[in-house]
Structure formats: structure tokens, C-alpha cells
Amino acid sequence: MTDAKKGFPENFLWGGATAANQLEGAFDADGKGLSSADMVAYVPKAERSNDHTIEITSGRIEQILSGEFKARFPKREGVDFYHRYKEDIALFAEMGFKVFRLSINWARIFPNGDDAEPNEAGLKFYDNVFDELHKYGIEPLVTLAHYETPLGLTQKYNGWASREVIACYTRYAETVFRRYQDKVKYWITFNEINMMTLSPFTGGGVVIDRAENKLQTIYQALHHQFVASALATKLLHEIIPGSQMGCMLARMESYANTCNPEDVRLNQHENQMNLYFTDVHARGEYPKYMDRYFAENNIVLHKEPGDDEILKLHTVDYVAFSYYMTLTVSASPEGERAQGNLFGGVKNPYLKASEWGWQIDPVGLRIMLNTMYDRYRKPLFIVENGLGAYDKVEADGSIHDSYRIDYLRQHIAQMKEAILDGVELIGYTSWGPIDLVSMSTSEMSKRYGFIYVDLDDDGNGTLNRSKKDSFHWYKKVIASNGAEL
């Protein structure tokens, strides 16, 4: 019982999380090819029909490639980590990071996705980044595919809609496993794999207007990703003994709006549809509840002989996820709607919301951790959590982001409660330890970082880095192993 009262274990991995397409910039440097993220243009808020501008049509791709479509593409520019990684990693080290989550941009290694040979300049860049991290004793946590499908695979195969992409992915995975086998222990196969159901282009380079049957194409593409993930897990365990492979879900814990059985049943269904992805990854088989969903939606998955065995034999070592908010669902069409990062629901009167309408629910994190651990009995890893907000730079250059500190403090406190509940939690990487380009809106004004980057939504600024109040707060949290919040 003594250990159960300690809270965060001594080897707990504190750090921050990023994605190459939102961070690196240098989209055409040193032989890098175009990726799906390089096609996403910035749309000013006044011109948006909703808060997501990430799904791209076939016609739009052709307009962009021909030069007919004129726009800014902020994810091509990022915040120039490509040239400033030493400065940024030094700041992470100053905060005391134990781990840094980043992604390898597939098109930096294989510019077209299926090239005969990898791009040495791309491989060397990540060598340099990993070496810099190790200089400070920071463990890399690497995502293989974080919304960065090489555009060449979209043009040739319609991305993950085609089974041919499995071989392209596993070859890429094997290449980086062998290259970095002495530098990277923790890996993730796909970022927020459930994105495929919301934006197939973002989740898998799939241009959905090229598909005859949208749902069929989405779930077939997901099957290809599940098989690829299992094969990559097999390769990792063979190439790097003692390594750890995780899956990653955008977890959307939801509540029934009332105790009306109709609401409760809808809530059960919504949670099942979200957990379906981790069920396959962690349990190694399709859950039975999906049989009815597939039948009612005329979805017939094409599986090759041996696919089910591959899924069963090569499950992930840990389950990772993003957590920003919870949802409340109602079977009634009435009720005020609430916004979300990927999903929506009805407004929860017991919760406050961020400036983007996301409902803030620290206790929901504890609920979710317990639910996930009870379901899978595998170690869990929170690899995204944070508050997007407008930050004000004072006349003296200081940034007083007490709202961000409050958000993180409450969530970390609930993480400790979950650990005391018996949940095995590996670590915590807050989303965007440095300001970066927003995934859903390509904004810079929606900031998450402990480190401010001087760049605005229109691409103006010096890119200079400065510390917010939260920088110094998080440093104390890490130094005290979560005891000082």
C-alpha cells in the first residue's frame, strides 16, 4: 500500500508533444517531398464555414499543384524547428523534459512515399535531432505517421485506400527502425488513427471524392492501417529488442445527457465507436459490436489471408491518446450544441469552456484513464493534453498565461488520482510545449506552448522564442515529479 500512495512513479516521463508538419517548416528543403499537410491552406476565421479546414478535394490538389490556387500554407512554414531545433531542445531541457514527442515526416525520408532509396539528408536531420535530445538526457517518443502521408501516395494510390501503401509504410518503418535503433525506444504507429473517419485526407491521404462509397473506403483504409501498424510492431520488436510500440487515439470520453435509457444507450454507442480503434490495436481483433455497424452500413472489409492472425499476434505494448475535453450526448435533437476539437455534442452545464468552445473537464481525464486501463490492462501514455488560448505579450515581453497553468494543474492533479486508483501511466507530454501551427485551423493565434513564438496568423514575425509564466511553472512540476502544482 505504501507505493500506491506515492503518486507519480520515479521514472515518470514528463515532456511535451509536437508534429513535424506543425513545427518543422522547411517543407521543400534537402530533398523532402510534399505531404498531405502541405496542401492545407490557411483560411481566416471570418471566411470559414466551420472550425475545420483540413479536408481536401481532388480538384483542390490539382489547383494547388498547378499554381492556380493562391494561398498561404502555414504547415509548410511551421515555426522553423528545422533550423532552430538546437535552441528549442535547449529550452525543453531547461524545463527538465524527460521525453519529447515528435514525428518523422515520412516524405522527408521517402519523398514520394515509394522511392527506391531513402533520402539521406532527411535521415541525417533526425539523427541530429535525436543526438541533440540525448545530449540533454531527453528520451525521444517518435510517431511514424502524424497526418503526413506523402502526396505521391495520394496521387498514385489514393493513399491508404489502397493496400499497396501497407508495403510502403512498413518499408519506411523498417528504414527508420534500423537507422535509429540505438537512439529511439518509444514509438507510435499512427497519430489519432480515428481521424480517418472525420477527415480521410488528413488521416490517410485519401481523397474521398475519388471513392465510390465513402464509408466503405474509410473503413477499408483503416483496415490497411491496422495491418500496417501490426506489421510495424512486429518489425520493431525484431529490430530493437526492449523497444515499445504504442497506438494512439483521439479519446473522446462522452457522458449521457440524462439518465433516459435512450441517452445512456447512445452514449454507450458513441464510446464504442471511439474505442473500436484501440480495441483492434490492443486486443488484436475487431470487436463484435462492429459487426452490426458494418452490416447496417453495407461495409464489407476485404481482408487478405493472414490479416486477422497478424492483428492478433502483434498488439501494441502501450495505449497512447490525446485528451482535451469530454462530450455530452443526447438522443433528443433539442439542446445547445457544444464545440470540440474533432467531435461535437450538447453543452454540459457543469463544465466551463475554452475560447474555442472546448469543454474543460479535468475529472473526465481520471474517468477516462480508469476506463481505458480497466479495458486493456496495458500501460497508458497521455501524449497530448493542453489548452489552446490567445496569449498577450506585455510591454516588458512577459506573458502571464495563468489560464494555461490552471488547466494543466487541474489535469495533472487528476492524473495523480488515477495513478492512486491503480492505473499504470507511463508519462505525460503536453501538447505544443512551444507554439506551433494549429492542426485544424492552421492558425498561430491559437497557442498551447510554454514557449512563445513571435509569429502571427498572416506569417509575420521574427520567430523569436520567449518564455511564458507556464514555462517556469512546468519546470517546477517536473523537478518535483508532480508534487508541486
Automatic annotation (TrEMBL):
UniProt-recorded Gene Ontology molecular function terms: beta-glucosidase activity
Pfam families for this protein: Glyco_hydro_1 (PF00232)
SUPFAM superfamilies (alphabetical): (Trans)glycosidases
GO biological process: carbohydrate catabolic process
This protein's UniProt keywords: Glycosidase, Hydrolase
Coiled-coil region: none
GO cellular component: a single term: cytosol
Similarity field: Belongs to the glycosyl hydrolase 1 family.
Protein name as annotated: Amygdalase
Gene designation per UniProt: ascB
